[in-house]
Design goal:
Length: 142
Amino acid sequence: MGRTLKEVMKTLPASRRAKVESLAQKKVEEMLTHAKTLKDFRKAVGKTQVQVAESLGIKQHAVSQLEQRSDTYVSTLQKFLETLGMRLELSVVTAQGIKIELPSFHPWVQEPIPVPAKKKAAASGTGAAPQKAKRATLERRA
């Protein structure tokens, strides 16, 4: 029966293990630097489509389709990268080459929408009587 990489690594002397881990980290950094697709990013961090799918709460074939798309929502891209331990940052580059960071642009973050006091009262059940009276008055006029 074969041995796993973890089992082999445990048998190596500490100095050799450190060298292997250092080389592996350099390889991951190189793969990330040259990544051009979502699939490249996923592979660079050593995750399978199944693992990403489980993190996103979708099926494996949906991850496959996502990796093949040339266009996707920013929020979907952000969630995908988050499962890989990455963060999406957006910036704008002008025609003159000036890079402007967009730290406040996070369309994937759902901020609660403030509800005016009047609507809060109606939604909570208080103030329902005035609404009924107003409706009754309008109906009588018609």
